[in-house]
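Final report, closing paragraph on structural work. Over the funding period we assembled a curated collection of sequence-structure pairs, and we close with a single example.
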Amino acid sequence: MNTVSPNLYDRTLRERIFHGVLFEILAIGIATPLASWLTGESLMDMGVLSAIISFIAIAWNMFFNWVFDQLQKRLQFERNVAIRILHACVFELGLIVLAVPFIAWWIDASLIRAFVIDIGLILFFLPYSFLFNLAYDHLRARIIRRGHLQIQAENT
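Its predicted structure, as stored:
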């Protein structure tokens, strides 16, 4: 069984902000035109809606991933594919609870229509979240290992 490096998932507030903002900027760029096209709502309305939901998602992302990191420290599990699938699903469930009432209010729709729209967004965001975080974890681990190897080389 692989062991988890104790510092591999310690993240600063600055890194958490970077991670969340990068995630959301890429998502807005992809999801806004798609949501506008699928719902028939204006690109402007969907753009503002996407930006506000992104703000909500950034705050949720930072909190959720902090809790996730704390659980990993305590339970010592690996971030494998199954864990990343669970991570993405639980994250999206929390975001539904936060976003659906706002969507309904913003586009003047029922909670059911807002929920259906949000489900459509989730069909985009589940694979996006999974792939983004999988790639981010992989690149972050490579950067950390490289930095660690450089530090060791400098000390010898």
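The mean pLDDT is 84. The first helix runs from residue 13 to 39. We thank the funder for supporting this effort.
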